[in-house]
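Risk register update: the risk of archive-format incompatibility is retired. Evidence:
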Amino acid sequence: MSSALLCRTNRVNSPIFIAFVRNASTSSTSNPNRWKRLAFQLAGGFVATGALGYAWAHSQAIFASGNKAHLVPLPWSFRGPFDSLDHASVRRGFEVYKQVCAACHSMKFLAYRHLVGVTHTEEEAKTLAAQDMITDGPDDQGNMFQRPGKLTDYMPAPYPNDKAAKAGNGGALPPDLSLITLGREDGCNYIFNLLTGYQDQPAGVKGEPGLHYNPYFSGGWIAMAKQLYDDQIEYSDGTKATESQLAKDVTEFLKWTAERDHDDRKRLAIKAVLIFTPLVVLSYHWKRVKWATLKSRKIAFYRPKSKQD
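Archived output:
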């Protein structure tokens, strides 16, 4: 038993209490209720894990039984928590977009200045912007006019409005590609599988005129024809432009347009891990030092026996 702390009152004939402070002698192994609680917690954890696993497997079965083929997952370079985008691939993907996709699809949230320091230098971005004519105005006479693009301009749309876009594509509206990887489930795998998944329609399957069979599109029929072919364009860096390479590069480019802060966000996460990990360790140690003496003591109050007793 540890040292006793004797507390007295100043009043005469008042009861005298002695507060004994002693270390708690009971250990965790001598408490059977603790083991019962631990057993119940483990059992509850197993039940919860099993329920979550069953729900996930059931959802995958429902997804696989839908009206489109199951997407093939690909080993993207940016999948890991500390992996970055392949900026060379992003640059090539921009070339694919400009030479293939820009004829029908807009990119209204992407400006030329966003390319600086990522895929192009400032001079290269200015040259690209100057190649496009941008509608501006009105001028002093109240008329709209065309001028060469600047870094602050956004990518020009291929059609003036949605009705013109539908009229030029057989009634189908080509979606804007700025955020397409976020707007589709499993966006990167979906885009790659869609671009490379065109096939001849199975025997006995009939589609509407003007549509093309693609099992990765909902319903199996899509208005957009196959767009990518081997050696369709020439990359500025000399990379061989196979169909899969074109699809991979444009998908990575669309991933960057939807999440331009992708690399910065992961770089910030690395800094946060490096900073907060030692802080957590120090905080835990301080907590143990601060509360160890208080949590390991037990205070008991006893009334001493009087002489008459």
